[in-house]
Amino acid sequence: MIIRDFMKRNVFYVHKNATIFDAAEIVVNRHIGLLPVLDDAERLIGVVGLKDLLTLEMPAFFDLISDVDFVHDFGAVETSHPSQEQLMQPVTSIMQPATSVEENCGLLRAYALMLKRNLHDLPVVSSTGKLVGIASRVDIGTAILATWKNIKDAQ
Amino acid sequence: MWSQIASAAIFIICLWLIFSERLNRTIVGITGAMAVLILGKLQGFYTESQAIQAVDFNTLGLLFGMMVLIALLEPTGFFQYLAVWTGKLSRGKPVRLLVLMGAITTVLSMFLDNVTTVVLIAPITILICEILGIQPAPYLMAEAILSNTGGVSTLVGDPPNVIIASAAGFTFNDFLIHALPVVLVAWIMVVFTLRYLFRRELSAQPKNIEALLLLNPVESLEDWRAARRVLVVLGGAILLFFLQGVLDVSPAFIALCAATVALLWVQPDIRELLKRIEWSILLFFGALFVMVGALEASGALNIVVSTLTQIIHIPPMWFGVILIWIVSILSAVVDNIPITVAMIPVIQGLETHGINITPLWWALAFGAGFGGNGTLIGSTANIIVATLSEKTRTPITAQFWNQRGLPVMIVSCSVASIMFVMIYPLLSQ
Question: What residue ranges define each of the domains in chain A, with the CATH number in brackets?
Answer without folding.
Answer: 3-154 (3.10.580.10)
